[in-house]
Prior knowledge:
This protein is an all-alpha fold. Helices cover 73% and strands 3% of the residues. It has a two-stranded antiparallel sheet. The longest helix is centred in the N-terminal third of the chain and has 27 residues, at 3-29. It is globular and about 45 Å long. The two termini are 14 Å apart.
Amino acid sequence: MGTISIFATRFNVNTKSLEAFDEAVRLLKKKEEIKKTPEVEPVIVKLLDVIEPIVENIEGNLSESIAISERSVVDIIKERHDNEWPIYREKIQQLYSKLNSNQFKLSESDFLLLNDIADALDAECANLFRRMSER
Length: 135
């Protein structure tokens, strides 16, 4: 597989994950309190598909996910929040725990964090697109 094929595949996978993530965030913004029900569970799974590999990377574990380029996304987030990285890393882990619970409320700061994760994933997609265009 050529270099451009690798970038194209990663771009495609990351873009699909970003679209699903954004859709899930929009759906959850409409809910006051979130309970894991059969209709809400797939929405939460879309968020976890992106957040779980990020948390795995933050904790120093290898992720088995192919949904995102988590190392690059974590690097982008870390660069943006370098001065507050230990606290920010903890916030991501807390959000991950919250999303894995049966009932929870998402605060404004949780939505800011979700938007920041989406922005980092979007930046990675733009980086992959740029790299494909250079070939």
